[in-house]
């Protein structure tokens, strides 16, 4: 059994702001982009369709030599069902001891998925956004919409935020 199990509220406590992830993600993206020299082994995600139920199981293993970290995320994703009490995306992250393969920790992956994805979008936006951009438009209004809103409002300045429900939020 792993010695550490972190439930969603505990992960949220450690990751209370998505921007806390930025330095680690920028380093990880740099290492991945450096190819073999960067020491990241991360095959393309394996995806198993669960056809009768319209869902998928994704398995996302990785080893980073720079961090000496061995991990995999397991994620299921199903069609978004309005008013469902179950989120469309559910994830768990397993962390292993790279020296002997023992399972060290099991982390709820939902908050990690929400904040990691938004933080990576923010890194891309920092590099690619034209200086004259004034309006943030968010498509969808689910988990990712909120996590993207949170980090984009922290890092950038917009005059307006528009979403697909037709709401406009004036920021200035
Ligand atoms: N690249 C990555 O690492 C990740 C990508 N994703 C993807 O991001 C997307 C959003 O994920 P979540 O926010 O977790 O899902 P969610 O189920 O919480 O939210 C989806 C939202 O999209 C809305 N929507 C569905 N069809 C629409 C349409 N035609 N026009 C406008 N809005 C529409 C739904 O009403 C809902 O508000 C999904 O496609 C998901 O697979 C999610 C996690 C990680
Ligand atoms: O990276 C992830 O996590 C996911 N990517 C796309 C589909 C759902 C989950």
Are there runs of 5+ residues with pLDDT below 50, and where?
A: none
Query: What spatial form do the alpha-carbon principal axes imply?
Result: globular
Bound molecules: 1,4-dihydronicotinamide adenine dinucleotide, ligand LZCNNONV
Can you say what the CATH homologous superfamily is? ornithine cyclodeaminase, domain 1
| CATH fold node name | ornithine cyclodeaminase, domain 1
State the secondary-structure class: alpha+beta
Key terms:
single chain; 172 residues; alpha+beta; 7-stranded mixed beta sheet; 3-stranded mixed beta sheet; 30% helix; 32% strand; binds 1,4-dihydronicotinamide adenine dinucleotide; binds the ligand O=C(O)C1=NCCCC1; NAD(P)-bd_dom_sf; pyrroline-2-carboxylate reductase activity
Task: Explain what this protein looks like in three dimensions.
- The model has no long low-confidence stretch (mean pLDDT 95).
- The termini are far apart.
- By secondary structure, the protein is α+β, with helices and mostly antiparallel strands.
- Strand 8 (135-138), helix 4 (143-155) and strand 9 (160-163) form a beta-alpha-beta unit.
- The longest helix has 19 residues, at 110-128.
- Strands 1, 2, 3, 4, 5, 6 and 7 form a seven-stranded mixed beta sheet that branches. A three-stranded mixed beta sheet has the order 8-9-10, covered by helices on one side.
- It has helices at residues 8-14, 22-33, 110-128, 143-155, and strands at residues 4-6, 40-41, 46-50, 55-64, 69-78, 89-96, 103-108, 135-138, 160-163, 168-170.
- The structure holds 1,4-dihydronicotinamide adenine dinucleotide (NAI) and the ligand O=C(O)C1=NCCCC1.
- Ligand LZCNNONV is lined by residues 58, 75, 77, 89, 91, 113.
- GO terms for molecular function: delta1-piperideine-2-carboxylate reductase activity; NADP binding; protein homodimerization activity; pyrroline-2-carboxylate reductase activity; thiomorpholine-carboxylate dehydrogenase activity; thyroid hormone binding; transcription corepressor activity.
């Amino acid at each position: 059994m792993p010695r550490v199990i972190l439930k969603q509220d505990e992960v949220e406590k450690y990751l209370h702001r998505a921007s806390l992830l930025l330095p680690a993600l920028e380093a990880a993206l740099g290492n991945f982009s450096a190819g073999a020299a960067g020491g990241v082994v991360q095959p393309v995600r394996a995806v198993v369709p669960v056809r009768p139920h319209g869902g998928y199981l994704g398995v996302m293993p990785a080893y980073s030599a720079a961090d000496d970290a061995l991990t995999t995320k397991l994620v299921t994703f199903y069609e978004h069902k309005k008013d469902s009490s179950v989120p469309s995306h559910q994830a768990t992250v397993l962390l292993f001891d790279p020296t002997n393969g023992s399972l060290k920790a099991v982390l709820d992956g939902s908050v990690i998925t929400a904040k990691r994805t938004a933080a990576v979008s923010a890194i891309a936006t920092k590099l690619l956004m034209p200086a004259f951009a004034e309006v943030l438009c968010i498509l969808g209004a689910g988990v990712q919409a909120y996590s993207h809103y949170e980090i984009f409002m922290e890092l950038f300045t917009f005059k307006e935020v528009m979403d697909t429900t037709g709401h406009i939020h004036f920021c200035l």
